[in-house]
Design goal:
By secondary structure, this protein is an alpha/beta fold. Helix 3 packs antiparallel against helix 4 and helix 6 runs parallel beside helix 11. The protein binds thymidine-5'-phosphate.
Amino acid sequence: AYRAEVGMERSDRSKVSDGMVVVGDPQLLENKKAAIRNAGPGKLQVIADFDATLTKYRINGCCGQTSHNLLQQSNPEYDIKRQELYEYYHPLEFSPIIPIEEKTKLMVEWWEKTHALLIEGGLTCDDIKKSVESATIEFREGVFELFEFLEEIGVPVLIFSAGLADIIEEVLRQKLRKSFKNIKIVSNRMIFSKDGHLVSFKGKTIHVLNKNEHALDMAAPLHDHLGGNDGPINDNASVKKRTNVLLLGDHMGDLGMSDGLNYENRIAVGFLNDNIEKSIGNYQEAFDVVYLNDAPMWGVVELVSQIC
Ligand code: TMP
C-alpha cells in the first residue's frame, strides 16, 4: 500500500480521539477498505460536500459561514433581503412535515429568488473577493494535506455543493493558496459581464434536494478559473470509470451525491456537527464512519493512506 508523508504528526493523529469517531460496522468498513485498496487508486474518486464538511462548523464558538451567507454585496439592502429569505425558507428546508415534492418547489423558489437578488443587487467579482477576505470560514485541519495527498496519487476530488461555485473557488484560493489540478467544483456558477457584474447563472440550479441529479455532467473543471492544467483525472468520462468512492458529507442528503455514479464500493464518512444525540443513530447506520465534535480531517487522511 502507498503511504505518503502527508505532514501528519503522531500528535495530530491522536487528536482524532476515540470519543470523536464512531464506526457502526467495523467489519464492513474493513471489507470495503480491502476492496478499494485491491482495486488501486486508479479506481478511486472522492466526492465531498463543502459547507461544514470541508469547512469547520464552528469557529471560536460561532457557526462558521457558508458560501451563501458570507456574501456581502456593496448594496447592503440586498443582503437584508437575502437574509429575510433565509429566515423564511431555512426552517422549511429542515421541516419534517412538508412532502418532498412541495419542499422541492420551495427550495427552487428560494434559490431562484436569492440568485435574482444577487443579480439585481449588482454583485461584483470584487465583492466576492472582499467578502471572502472578511468571512468567518476555515477549512478543517488536514484538508490541505488531504488534497495534496490525493493530487500526488492522482485521485480526483469532486466538491459538490448547493452553494456558489465562485465563492467556493475564492475560498480555496485565499485559504489554501494552491491550485489543485485534481479538484472539480460542481455548484452554482456565476456569469459576469465584461465590467465584472453578475448577469446570470450557468445551467440548471443546484439546490439541496437535487444535488444528486446529473452530478458529473454539470461539473466544470477548476482550471477554467484557477489556471491549472486539465488532465485525464479531470475528464468526466474517466471519472465515471472510477467506481470506488470515498464520500464526505455532513447531511444525510449528502449520501445522494454519489447517485449519478454506478459505484462498486463506497465508504461514506459523515461529519455530525449538531443534534448529536438525536441524529447519531441514523448517521451511524447511514455512514460507515461518523466524526463528531467538528473533528479535523486527519482521520480521513489516514483512511486514504490505508486504502491507496
Ligand atoms: P450545501 O452546502 O449542503 O450544498 O447546501 C447549501 C446551503 O445553503 C443550504 O443549507 C441552504 C443554504 N442557503 C443559504 O444559506 N442562503 C441562501 O440564500 C440559499 C439559497 C441557501
